[in-house]
Write a structure and sequence with these properties.
The protein is mainly α. The protein has 2 domains: 102 residues, Ribosomal protein L17 (50s Ribosomal Protein L17, Chain: A, Alpha-Beta Complex); 69 residues. Helices cover 60% and strands 10% of the residues. Strands 1-3-2 form a 3-stranded antiparallel sheet. The termini are far apart.
């Protein structure tokens, strides 16, 4: 039974498999992408991401642990100085595997494994929308003021109308009083003329009788 035995043997014994993965991860950090079979790429990803995590730590102990896998000093320096600082804010997922199809000849599944270069942007959790409470209805203050202003304006208008009416009536009375005084003497003179005219026929009749 195969209990507690993770990973693929890849058709090799342990020493051969470790040496192969050590060489592959050195080439990956040197060129930042390599093409290999699908099964090897999946096993290589485990080793590469552990080394990048050590590079993010950056202390002496982490550097010595990484040196047990990376035997090339230039590649080790590149890992700690140039590769690991890219992923300080990324919590994992430093590599990407892209399927390339089948290899001609033995039809093995090929894949390209490469380092992720995109800047990591953490996703923000969307908060559930809070139901807004209905606002209390307040009595509008502006309409009352407008009504009070309109009422005062109406009162002032009525007062002005009354004043103009009284002024007009006073002007009419003042204009009509002289005419009446002038007409009064004329009527008196006409009355006297009528009396005189009535006396003249009476005098003529008396003269004829005599």
């Amino acid at each position: 039974m195969r209990h507690n035995k993770s990973g693929k043997s890849l058709g090799r014994n342990s020493s051969h498999r470790k040496a192969m993965l050590r060489n592959m991860v050195t080439s990956l950090f040197e060129h930042e992408k390599i093409t290999t079979t699908d099964a090897r790429a999946k096993e290589l990803r485990k080793v590469a991401e552990k080394l990048i995590t050590l590079g993010k730590r950056g202390d002496l102990h982490a550097r010595r642990q990484a040196a047990t896998v990376l035997r090339d000093q230039k590649t080790l320096t590149k890992l700690f100085d140039r590769v690991a600082p890219r992923y300080l804010e990324r919590p994992g997922g430093y590599t990407r595997i892209i399927k390339l199809g089948l290899r001609e000849g033995d039809k093995a599944a090929l894949s390209r494994i490469e380092l992720v270069e995109e800047e990591f942007k953490p996703k923000t959790k969307k908060k559930a929308p809070v139901a807004a409470k209905p606002a209390k209805k307040e009595a509008p203050a502006a309409p009352k003021e407008n009504k009070a202003k309109s009422a005062s304006e109406e009162v002032s208008e009525t007062v002005e109308v009354k004043e103009t009416a009284t002024e007009e009536t006073a002007a009419e009375e003042s204009s009509s009083s002289p005419e009446e005084t002038v007409e009064a003497p004329a009527t008196a003179e006409s009355d006297q003329a009528g009396v005189d005219s009535s006396k003249e026929p009476a005098a003529e009749e008396e003269a004829n009788k005599e």
